[in-house]
Amino acid sequence: MLKRIANLLEDKSLYIAIVLTFLIAYLSIISLKIEEPKIEFGYFDKVAHTISYIFLTLSWFLAFSLRKVNFFKSLLIAISISFYGIIIEMIQGKFTSNREADIYDVLANTIGILLGFGIFILWIQKRKVLK
Fold it and tell me: What is d(CA 106, CA 122) in angstroms, rounded to the nearest whole number?
């Protein structure tokens, strides 16, 4: 069952990566009328950034069909996603009236990218063991 899900994700991974990229950009720029959850945790936004960029990173690694850890390709993907996150923050600061650029969002994005890369490496290693 897990193998079928993994194969399905790999088959549609480019589409998933593109959709996630546009979805993150859209959600980063629009004016959300949703209140943050009323919990005793003041960093909900940063956790959301981290989780979003974990999935974005994983989706692009899958889109490039990295069946093994290729340091150069992995680094290029990670740097590209980092630049994407920085550009989104700059757009928020310059072109929106309800959002602002935040260096801590960039840091949360970077943490998400690094975690996504780590998860990908562990997943690749596990797949090698299973084969």
Answer: 24
